[in-house]
Amino acid sequence: MTTDLQSGISRRAFLQGAGGLAFCAAVGADGFRLVSQAQAATLANTLVTPWVRIAPDGTVTIFTAGAEMGQGSMTSLPLILAEEMDADWNKVKLEWAPADPRFYGYTFNNVQMMQIVGSRAVQLYYAQLRVAGAQVRKVLIANAAQKLGVDPATLRTEPGFVVNPAGGQRLSYGEIAAFGEIPAQLPAVDPKELKERKDFRLIGKQVARRDLPAKVNGTAQYAMDVKLPGMVYASTLHSPVHDATPAIWNGVQPNTPSSEPESWNDAEVKRMKGVIDVVKLPNGVAVAADSFERARAGRNALKVVWKKGKAEGFDSARAMEDYARVYADPGAKVSPIETKGDVKAVFAGAAKTFEAEFRSDYGYHAQMEPLNAVVRINDAGDRAEVWEGSQAPDASRKAVAQALGLKEEQVTFNQCYMGGGFGRRSLGDYAAECAQVAKAVRRPVKLIWTREEDIAQGMFRPQSFQCVEAAMDASGKVTGWKHCVVGDGEFLLQTGIRIPYYGVPNQSIERRGVSHGVKLKHWRAVGHVFNVFAIESMVDRMAADQGMDPIEFRMEKMGASPKARKVFEALAQMSDYKAPRPSGRAVGISITERSNSLGAGAVEVSLDRKTGKIRVHKVWVAVDGGLIVQPEQARHNVESAILYGLSSVLHERVTIKNGRVEQSNFHDYKLLRMSDLPEEMHVQFVDVDTRPTGLGEIGNPFIAPAIANAVFRLTGKRLAHLPFTPDKVLATLKA
Amino acid sequence: MASFTLNGKPVKLAADPKSLLLWTLRDEIGLTGTKYGCGAGLCGACTVHVDGKAVRSCMTPLAAVEGRKVTTIEGLSPDSSHPLQKAWVEQAVPQCGYCQSGQIMKAAELLSVNKKPTRSQIVRHMDGNICRCGTYHRIIAAIEQASKEV
To answer: Structural domain tally of chain B?
Structure first.
C-alpha cells in the first residue's frame, strides 16, 4: 500500500521494476552511505533498501526522509541529493523513505534516527545527501567513460546526462542505467569534489515544492483519508486527568499517561447502534463502531469512573503562583544551565541592577488534522501495518511494535502527509493506541481523536515563571546576567534560555523543576517562546532606561556577536525602524536563535486602549539560516512561524482546573484568523555560505518580546504574562 | 434514504437522514478531500457548497441536502483548472494543506458572487476558515490573482 507520491506505483512494483540501476543504502561504521545492491546483499542479516533508482527511461526515484507537515522538507531533501547527482529534476520522482533509521536516519548523539523536530531536516541531512548524490554521479560517469573508452576525468554532467566535450557525445542517465553496473565498492567522495555554490542548479533556486498540486484538489493523502477493506472506526475517551512524568516527551509512548479507567457503562454503550466493541486501554476507553459518527456517539456516551492520576486536583493558575515561591525558596532544587564568570561579585559591584518577572501559560499544538491512525494486523497476529502522519516514523513503528508485543521488523509503517505537526507527532502514541484497538476487535481500524479529545489530551508547551536580573557597570555595559525558569517539563523549559548571541561575561542561568503530571511536549520552538520573551523584554527595558536606541544598545552594551550584528544591520536597513510611524503606532525590536539560525525582528503595532486588543501591522525579520536550499520555501517557513507565534501571543492559552483542561474546541482555544493578519510581512535572508540551519521555527520566538517592547513604547507599560489577551493587556495598562 | 446531486451526478444512499454530510462524503462515498477539523463548525476545513453556498459539512445532516446540489473540492473542476486552484499553486499557498480544500471552497463562493473583491471583503469572507500554518496572506494573494481570471 505504500505508494509512489506522484504516480501511485506500489512499492512492490518498484522493487520488482525491470532493469536500471538500483542503489542501496547501508549503514557502516561511518554512518549512512550508498552501496551497490550486490554488496549490500552480502551484508549478513542487514536489511537492504533502495535509495536511488534510475530507470532506463531516465526516471530517477529518490526516497525522501522529509516527513511532510507543511514545512516542505519532503521536497528539499531529495533536491539536495538530486543537485549533487546532477539529476534532471523534472524526471525525479519522490517516494517516502521506509521507517528504518539504520538506512534513512541521520546521526544524532551517536544514534541513527528519523525524527524531524526542531525544524532540523535540512540541517541534519544536508551533508550526507550531498555525498550520496555525488556517489551516484561518479558511478554514472564511470560507466559512461567505459562505454565511450575515455578517461572519466574528461567527462562532465548536465542535468540527466553525462557529456563528453571532446567527442560531442551525450549519454542520458536512463541510457547508462540500461547497461551500467554498480561497482562492489561505491566510490569515495572527497568534500572538495562536491559542487561549488556557483555551480548549483537546484539549491538556492526557485523550485516548487512537490506536494502543491495534490493539496489543491483534495487528493493529498493524510492518514485520515486511508480506507482499508473491512475497516472499522474508533474513537477514544481518555481520562481527563493526566498522569505524566516531566520527561514523557522523551521517548516512545504506546499510551500517553492519563489515569486508568476503573469502571464504565459498558453494556449500555455496547448496545448502541453500530457499536462493535468497547476496548479498555491503560489510559482510556475506546469505542469501535461501523462508522466514525457511531464510534463518536459511543465515545460521547461513555460514563467512566477513573482512578486517580498525578494531575488530580491540579490548578494551573494556582501552580503559577507556587512557581514564584519555588523561585524565592533558597532550598529549592536547582539545575544549572549556564554558569560563567563571577555573577555574585559583578552584581555586588554593579552601578545599576535590573530585575523582572515573567509568566507564560500552557500552549496547545492545534494542528488542523486531529490525531489519527490506521492499523491492520494479519490473521496470524504476527504482522502489522500502520498508516500515520508522523514526524518520527521510526518511533511510531517502535511504539506499535511495543503495543502489540511484536518486533519492529514485523511492523510496516506507511507515511502519510501530516495536517500539521508542530512537535506533537513524534511519539507514535495514537498509532499504538489504534493498534491496541485493532488487536481487540480483530479488524483494521481507523482511530480518530475528536478535536475535544485532541485538546483534553494535549501535550502542551509548559507554562512557566521566570525571573531575569541584569547588572550594569558605570558605562552602561551589561556585565551580569541571571535567568531562572521555573516549571514542569525539564528540558522543554530551557530551550532558548542561553544567550550565545550576546557577550555578557558573567552569567548564571538555571532551571527549577516541578512536576504536575500534565503531559508536555515540543511545540514549535517550545521554551524559546517564553525564554526569549523574558530575555528580550529585559534587554529592551535596559535600553529604554539608558535612553538608547534598542539596536544600538544591543550592539554596544550587550556585546552582540558578529553574527548578531549582521542580522541587526540587515533588520535596521529593511525595516527603517527609526523612521517616524503613524500616530498610535510604535516599533518593537528583538532577536532570537533557534536550531543554529539567528533572526532579528521588528514589529509595528497599535493598541486599542479601550478593548485591550493589540494589532500587529507590519513585521520584519532578518535571518541568518546558513546557505538557503529553497529560498521561496524558506520564506514560507519563516512567515508561517511568524503567524504561529503571533497566534500564540495574541490568543492561545490552555488552563487546567481540578486536573481537567478547561478548553475544548476552537471557540475557547482561539487561533489567529485572517482578520488578525499583519498588512505586511518582510523576510530577508542574510547571504552567507555556511551550512544550512533550521528555519521552521526561527520566525516564532522573537514575536512576543517585539510586541511587548512596541507596546512599552506606546504606553510606558511592560507586558509580562503570555499570551497578551485583551484582559491581560487592560490589567497591565491599569496597573 | 438520501438523494442529492454530488459534483453533477445523482447520488442515492441508504443512509440515516441524520447522518452528517462530512462523514457520508468521506467514508461512504470516498471523497476525502473534505476534511474533519473541529466537528463543530468552528474551523471551516469541511466546507463544501450546497446549491452554490458554502456550508460546514460537519454540521450538515443529509436531510438538509435532500434534492440539492452538493459540490466538493473534487467537483470544483475536473482537472484542478479552476482559477482558484491554479492561483493556489502559483502562489504556493498550501503548507500542510489540510485546511486548503475548505479555504478554496469558501473562496469560490466569494468569487461566484463578487468577481472583484477588495482585500477587506476577502478578509471578512474568509475569516471563519482557520489555517494553522499561517498561509492567510498567500490565500489573499491567490484570491486576488484568481479574481483577475474569473
So the answer is: 2
A287 and A324 in a single domain? The answer is: no
Do B60 and B119 share a domain, yes or no? no
Q: Are residues A52 and A122 in the same domain?
A: yes
Task: Establish how many alpha carbons lie within 13 A of residue A420's alpha carbon, considering only the half-sphere containing its beta carbon.
Answer: 25
> Could you list the residue range(s) of the whole structural domain that residue B92 is in?
83-147
Average pLDDT over chain A reads 92
- A418: chain B residues, CB-CB within 8 Å: 96
CB A176 within 8 A of CB A140: yes
Q: What are the grid coordinates assigned to B63, written together?
A: 436531510
Pair (A567, A696) in one structural domain: yes
| Interface contact A69, partner B, CB < 8 A | yes
Report the alpha-carbon distance of residue A645 to residue A536 in Å, rounded: 15
Contact A640/B133, CB-based, under 8 Å?
yes
Complex ipTM more than 0.95, yes or no: yes
Asked whether the predicted pLDDT for residue A356 surpasses 70, the reply is: yes
Tell me which chain B residues have a C-beta less than 8 angstroms from the C-beta of A219: 33
Mean pLDDT of A521-542: 98
Based on the domain organization, do B54 and B34 belong to the same domain?
A: yes
Single out the residue in A385, A414, A447 at which a domain terminates: A447
Is there a contact between A532 and A590 (Cβ–Cβ < 8 Å)? Answer: yes
The DSSP H or E segment spanning A660 is strand A660-661
How many alpha carbons fall within 13 Å on the CB side of residue A285? 22
Are residue A337 and residue A382 in the same domain, yes or no? no
Q: How far apart are CA A176 and CA A87, in angstroms?
A: 13
Cα(A406)–Cα(A110) distance, rounded to whole angstroms? 26
Let me know the angle formed at the C-alpha of A644 by A590 and A224, rounded to the nearest 5 degrees. Answer: 160
Q: Which domain holds residue A398?
A: 226-310+373-447
- Going by pLDDT thresholds of 50, 70 and 90, the confidence category of residue A680 is very high
Three-state SS for A140-163 is HHHHHHHHHCCCHHHCEEECCEEE
How far is Cα A534 from Cα A477, in angstroms, rounded to an integer? 19
Residue A14's pLDDT is what?
31
pLDDT tens digits for range A480-494: 999 999 999 999 999
SS3 A258: strand
Q: Chain A closest CA to B121's CA: distance in Å?
A: 11
CA distance linking residue A146 with residue A132, whole number of Å = 22
Domain assignment of residue A335, yes or no? yes
User: Residue A232 gets which letter from DSSP?
Assistant: E
Tell me the average pLDDT across A591-598: 97
B75 to chain A: closest CA residue: A217
Q: How far apart are CA A279 and CA A261, in angstroms?
A: 11
CATH number of domain containing B51: 3.10.20.30
Q: Which among A453, A522, A529 has a CA at the least distance from the CA of A485? A: A529
Residues A137 and A185 in one domain: yes
Q: What is the pLDDT of residues A626-646, one digit of tens each?
A: 999 999 999 999 999 999 999
Instruction: Tell me which chain A residues have a C-beta less than 8 angstroms from the C-beta of B46.
Output: none
Touching check for B72 and chain A: CB below 8 Å? yes
CA angle A84, A85, A89 (to 5 degrees): 95
Interface membership of A381 toward B (CB under 8 Å): no
Mind listing the pLDDT tens digit for each residue in A684-714? 999 999 999 999 999 999 999 999 999 999 9
Domain count, chain A: 3
